[in-house]
Specification:
The chain has about 230 residues and is an alpha/beta fold. It has a single domain, classed as P-loop containing nucleotide triphosphate hydrolases (Rossmann fold). Helices cover about 35% and strands about 20% of the residues. The strands form 2 sheets. Strands 2-4-7-3-8-9-10 form a 7-stranded mixed β-sheet, sandwiched between helices. Strands 1-5-6 form a 3-stranded antiparallel β-sheet. Helix 1 packs parallel to helix 3. The protein binds guanosine-5'-diphosphate (GDP) and magnesium ion (MG). The site of magnesium ion has 4 residues, from helix 2. The site of guanosine-5'-diphosphate has 19 residues, from helix 2.
Length: about 230
């Protein structure tokens, strides 16, 4: 059974709940720790919600021109499709749209709450989670990205790295410059199993990225079956 026949269908993800309370998030993570899940993480405004929409269909997640809008962990469930039909022998999976890092929160009370919520989220992650770390292709490896790398690489979770907004690199020179950095990226992000270059705007790189997500979900399910039989 080739994994290539599996797909994510547009408009089939369902919003489950938004969590802003740390204890509620801890409970939810514990309850679902075996369920394969994807967490889209990156600086505010890097295009987390936009990438989610290019994978799961328009208006799945809320996008915004203003940085720092998402204050909750938004949980969505979704099925996989196989040969055009819903794969009913597979469970539903989860993905999480979370607040961005590196956003200078003006209100210290809000910042404290955010730190706590994210602390819970990351500390409760197991190897059933894939962190999809998104960076801006025009401004890779910002200070906040490096801080997130140093923190997240110690976790049990799996990782991939995505450079979004590739459409903003207008000249061949800019694109070549980024391409030259590939080796440097893979050295600096050794914990990331793959690196993708994408654009939520033009859908460039989205099929490849989606396929990688599907592969992760299926492999994680397989591992779970083996360890429980
Ligand atoms: N040109 C371009 N703009 C994008 C891309 N992805 C997101 N944006 C824009 O960047 C802004 C922030 O996007 P959003 O998905 O809300 O970012 P988030 O804060 O990381 O969830 C919005 O105005 C998007 O339209 C992309 O690939 N190309
Ligand atoms: Mg967002």
């Amino acid at each position: 059974m080739g994994m290539m026949n599996f797909e994510i269908r547009p408009q089939t993800a369902q919003f489950e709940l938004g969590i802003s309370d740390g204890e509620q998030l801890r409970e939810w993570m514990a309850k679902t720790h075996l369920v394969p899940k994807l967490v889209f993480s990156g600086r505010s405004n890097v295009g987390k919600s936009s990438l989610i929409n290019s994978i799961y269909g328009n208006k799945t997640a809320r996008t915004s021109k203003t940085a720092g809008r998402t204050r909750e962990v938004n949980v969505f469930s979704f099925p996989l499709y196989y040969d055009g039909k819903r794969a009913t022998d597979l469970p539903l999976f989860y993905f999480l749209d979370i607040p961005g890092y590196g956003f200078a929160e003006v209100n210290p009370q809000m910042k404290k709450k955010w730190d706590f919520l994210m602390g819970v989220l990351f500390s409760e992650m197991t190897e059933s989670t894939l962190i999809v770390n998104i960076q801006d292709a025009r401004h890779p490896m910002q200070e906040a990205d490096m801080a997130f790398r140093d923190f997240s690489k110690k976790l049990e979770a799996n990782h991939i790295l995505v450079f979004n907004k590739m459409d903003k690199l207008k000249t061949q020179k800019e694109r070549a410059q980024l391409d030259k950095q590939r080796i440097e990226f893979s050295k600096k992000f050794k914990h990331c199993r793959e690196i993708y270059f994408a654009s939520a705007e033009t859908a460039k790189g989205i099929p490849e990225l989606t396929n990688s997500l599907i592969q992760f979900l299926l492999k994680t399910l397989e591992k779970r079956k083996v360890s429980h039989s």
